[in-house]
Design brief:
heterodimer, A: mainly alpha, B: mainly alpha, 434 Repressor (Amino-terminal Domain), two-stranded antiparallel sheet, 5 helices, 2 strands, 59% helix, 6% strand
């Protein structure tokens, strides 16, 4: 594949990982702060803020390259995106089924773009880290 | 696919890190290839065989389940 192909995904420098990690605890403090300022805040709004920040955080982590971005890491990354998408579809189908059994309908207020993006990015990140862990488990 | 990278490294007194630097990958990648957990691309396999100065098929060998 040529480097300039539109299929080529440019990755962020490794230093961006720190920013990605900052986005994980940040919304928790933000929501606590907002709750103090506005005690009548809708809890659904708070959860959407958290999902949104986590989606961005995991998105940054997924699009940040490793120190050595060699062919094995690239292959892990591709596999992680595929696995993450599979888990997302499976997870959403399960949530829909649970919703149907409990409330007699498939749709739910919890299915927001923020939640789906967060789950997708979290699954991709988990799959990528798991592959790296497996590859380093039996170090010679 | 099995390989004899570990043996070839021992013959040349090379560490995984030395080989990794020569073929421009991480040491973890060399470790995974040696352990049979990762099958390298043709380009990387050719680079490895070039470093050892032996034919590709002398290092990499197909197994029955491949």
């Amino acid at each position: 594949m040529k480097e300039k192909s539109i299929l080529n995904v440019p990755l962020l420098p490794p230093s961006w990982k720190k920013l990605g990690y900052v986005f994980i605890p940040l919304p928790v403090f933000l929501v606590i702060g907002l709750a103090f300022v506005n005690p009548q805040m809708d809890p659904n709004e708070a959860s959407q803020i958290i999902y949104g920040f986590w989606a961005i955080g995991f998105g940054i982590l997924n699009l940040t390259r490793e120190k050595v971005e060699d062919e094995m890491i690239k292959s892990f990354r591709q596999q992680a995106f595929q696995t993450g998408f599979y888990w997302l579809i499976l997870g959403l189908a399960t949530l829909m089924l649970i919703n149907y059994v409990r409330f007699d309908r498939f749709t739910s207020e919890i299915f927001t773009a923020y939640l789906v993006l967060f789950l997708l990015n979290a699954y991709i990140y988990g799959a990528f880290q798991y592959q790296k862990y497996l590859s380093s488990k039996s170090e010679n | 696919m099995k390989n004899t990278i570990k043996v070839e490294r021992a013959k040349k007194d090379m560490t995984q890190q030395d080989l990794a630097e020569k073929v421009q990958v991480s040491r973890q990648t060399i470790n995974s290839i040696e352990a049979g957990k990762y099958v390298p691309s043709t380009v990387l396999a050719l680079k490895i065989s070039k470093v050892f100065g032996v034919a590709l098929e002398e290092i990499f060998e197909l197994e029955e389940n491949d």
